Amino acid sequence: MGKAGEGADVHNAGTEGDASTNPRDAADRGHDPAGGPYGPEFLDLERELAVFLRRARASSGEMAREVHPDLEPAAYGLLVRLEEAGPQRATELATYFGVGKATMSRQLAALETLGLVARTRDPADGRASLVELTPGGRDRFTRVRQARRAEYGRKLAAWDRGEISELARLLHRLNGLGNTED
């Protein structure tokens, strides 16, 4: 349940209990309101992912503003990647995030302007450059990330470590689906 002023909890919103209009009730009866062959577990998955993604977008915006008030939420993920993978070429970052080179170039230029990243010459190819976190960018990012991990620790305090590991494993597996072509 959300705190007062945060809006309704989508898990309890709508026509709960009205079997004629509640999609979950229809799914329980073996009918997918969307007309597909999938069972209620897919409706549950869709609903939970929608809530998770909405909250993740909001959280990314909050974390981005904590790093720098002018940091765009989408650029926060670049800081995560650079922290985890080290210096990268812009083309590698664009491929990793599935965006075009022009989009990546704009995002990196904004991060450079904010002093969070810098470009250095690629020792493997002097014509190319690598993007890396600046010391100030790393400090800001690390401070925000540590605060976020502490928050996760508080929220998941009742979970055992095996459940947390399983959630991470399943999310990793789900995220891997985005890298495959049908």
Automatic annotation (TrEMBL):
<keyword id="KW-0804">Transcription</keyword>
<dbReference type="InterPro" id="IPR000835">
    <property type="entry name" value="HTH_MarR-typ"/>
</dbReference>
<dbReference type="GO" id="GO:0006950">
    <property type="term" value="P:response to stress"/>
</dbReference>
<dbReference type="InterPro" id="IPR039422">
    <property type="entry name" value="MarR/SlyA-like"/>
</dbReference>
<keyword id="KW-0238">DNA-binding</keyword>
<dbReference type="Pfam" id="PF01047">
    <property type="entry name" value="MarR"/>
</dbReference>
<keyword id="KW-0805">Transcription regulation</keyword>
<feature type="region of interest" description="Disordered">
    <location>
        <begin position="1"/>
        <end position="40"/>
    </location>
</feature>
<dbReference type="GO" id="GO:0003700">
    <property type="term" value="F:DNA-binding transcription factor activity"/>
</dbReference>
<protein>
    <submittedName>
        <fullName>MarR family transcriptional regulator</fullName>
    </submittedName>
</protein>
<dbReference type="InterPro" id="IPR011991">
    <property type="entry name" value="ArsR-like_HTH"/>
</dbReference>
<dbReference type="InterPro" id="IPR023187">
    <property type="entry name" value="Tscrpt_reg_MarR-type_CS"/>
</dbReference>
<dbReference type="InterPro" id="IPR036390">
    <property type="entry name" value="WH_DNA-bd_sf"/>
</dbReference>
<feature type="domain" description="HTH marR-type">
    <location>
        <begin position="46"/>
        <end position="176"/>
    </location>
</feature>
<dbReference type="InterPro" id="IPR036388">
    <property type="entry name" value="WH-like_DNA-bd_sf"/>
</dbReference>
<dbReference type="GO" id="GO:0003677">
    <property type="term" value="F:DNA binding"/>
</dbReference>
